[in-house]
Specification:
Rossmann fold; 6-stranded mixed beta sheet; 38% helix; 504 residues; 4-stranded parallel beta sheet; 20 helices; single chain; alpha/beta
């Protein structure tokens, strides 16, 4: 039976009482590698199979982190500042106030090593955190590899991905400041769903601009957002000036995250009771996601493992940062030395083919300029790109860490990603979202190398969400209709032509 089987069945079992006699039945949540007091190593399932508690039945309980970790505090060279889109001077807190609440502006510029997580946020985190760390034994067997593969699974959140880790605190801080409405963009739909979910908990209105290609391909993501009370528009739309301009130039455009960001930012800037929320890229977003890596450190310590290689997918970079940043801290402290590898789609390769320049975060040039690896804010991925991770730039902090040499990056074409996803689904049982298929494909590559060399590497990868609402992409792959996209240098050069020549 799969290692994670107990996660879905634990509530039906009796557990041996603790020494205090306080637990006559399973009272703790099934999440992650939290151990039941004196739980038996094997549980008898009703269908006759047996399941082990995730990873190690004797592992210590894993507590939800009480602080977010800020990597900036430990970097030997601090990242370049963001610049005002009009003056090109470093952004001041008051420049960001039309878009973000005060506390998030403080976190964006913070140099503190740790920032306390509000108890109200931790209470909501308890709905799904801590998340499971699972050894992929059946995938290892399928690949016949000596490598030990572990994945940190964030798909157990209500929205089915890692995105609520930042959606909840963002909406919380907006609610604390008396904001009535939040607006955002979404590409694959995971972020829009997460913000809608968080807004429903705090009673805020939520309005989402969903990239047109995704809006058409993923109707159930739209329905999830609407179920949680959000208003959803295809982007570009006729609601905003920036959207109307794009439609005038190309009525059939598939849209892009850059365009959708412009629309949401425009609405936030024009309404005093409305703020903008972003699901990736910015420092405070990456900060909130470090609950993933902090939990994972404790979970791996509890089972006596240290990763030799950490692999994560990257679009804007929030999940990758969430898993890797705490491990980079340990690496900088000399406590471990894993190779840390980002994996991006060949169709949107900002780290591996982009330039490290100041660029706008949106298509209309309304956001601050950020120094990042970028394909140009006018870059629009091909609509047949099914692998998520569609943003034209990489998070500035990840770009900076990459420039410092603390991580490496590769790109993988989408057919290899979906081939790996099928292998994963048919061995581990979970259907990955398109985004983590990139990390899975890279993990499989490395595991097969270990098969050739005989190395028993410990590989840790990020499984940032499930693919239950992404099945049309799987259908395209299974029917043989998914093809690899050729990345044309001419297209890149055209998009880079709009990148402003500012900063150093």
């Amino acid at each position: 039976m799969a290692t994670h089987c107990v996660n879905f069945c634990a509530s039906s079992f009796d557990a041996k009482p603790s020494s205090s006699g306080s637990h006559s039945r399973v009272e703790k949540k099934w999440l992650g590698s939290i151990a039941l007091d004196r739980k038996p190593k094997n549980l008898k399932l009703s269908n006759g199979c047996r399941a082990r508690a995730a990873l190690n039945a004797d592992s210590i309980p894993i507590e939800i982190p009480r602080q977010w970790y800020n990597l900036i505090a430990d970097l030997p060279i601090k990242p370049p500042p963001s610049l005002h889109p009009k003056t090109f001077e470093p952004v001041k807190p008051e420049d960001l106030s039309p878009l973000f609440p005060d506390e998030l502006i403080k976190q964006e510029a913070s140099g503190e090593r740790y920032i306390d997580i509000p108890e109200e946020v931790r209470e909501i985190y308890k709905l799904w955190r801590p998340t499971p760390l699972i050894r992929a034994k059946r995938l290892e067997k399928l690949l016949d590899t000596p490598a030990r593969i572990y994945y940190k699974y964030e798909g157990v959140s209500p929205a089915g991905s890692h995105k609520p880790n930042t959606a909840v605190p963002q909406v919380y801080y907006n609610a604390q400041q008396g904001i009535k409405k939040v607006v955002t963009e979404t590409g694959a739909g995971q972020w829009g769903c997460s913000l809608a979910f968080a807004s429903s908990l705090f009673g805020l209105e939520c309005e989402v601009w969903q990239v047109r290609a995704s809006y058409d391909q993923k109707p159930y993501r739209k329905l999830m957002m609407q179920t949680w009370g959000a208003k959803v528009h295809p982007s570009p739309s006729n609601i905003t000036e920036s959207g109307r301009k794009i439609l005038l130039m190309d009525p059939s455009t598939p849209g892009s995250l850059g365009i959708a960001i412009s629309e949401a930012v425009e609405v936030a800037a024009m309404n005093a009771d409305t703020k903008y929320c972003l699901g990736s890229v910015l420092n405070h977003v990456l900060l909130h996601q470090t609950v993933i890596g902090e939990e994972c450190l404790k979970q791996m310590e509890a089972i006596g493992e240290t990763p030799d290689l950490i692999i994560g997918c990257t679009g804007g970079g929030s999940n990758f940062a969430g898993l890797s940043f705490p491990f980079i801290r340990e690496k900088l402290d000399g406590k471990m030395s894993p190779v840390i590898r980002a994996v991006e789609p060949s169709a949107c390769p900002s780290l591996t083919k982009g330039v490290y320049r100041y660029d706008y975060g949106d298509t209309a040039g309304m956001t601050p300029l950020m120094k990042m690896h970028t394909l140009g804010h006018d870059f629009i991925p091909d609509p047949i790109h099914a692998g998520g991770l569609r943003y034209h730039g990489m998070a500035p902090l990840i770009s900076h860490v990459y420039e410092l040499g603390f991580m490496e990056a590769i790109s993988i074409p989408q057919t290899e990603c979906f081939k790996g996803a099928i292998q994963f689904a048919r061995s581990e049982g979970l259907i990955p979202a398109p985004e983590p298929t990139h990390a899975i494909a890279a993990t499989i590559r490395e595991a097969l190398k270990c098969k050739e060399t005989g190395e028993a590497k410990v590989i840790l990868t990020a499984m940032c969400g499930h693919g239950h609402f992404d099945l049309p992409a799987y259908d395209n792959y299974l029917q043989g209709n998914l093809v690899d996209l050729s990345f044309e240098d001419e297209k890149l050069q055209a998009a880079l032509g709009s990148v402003p020549n500012v900063g150093s």
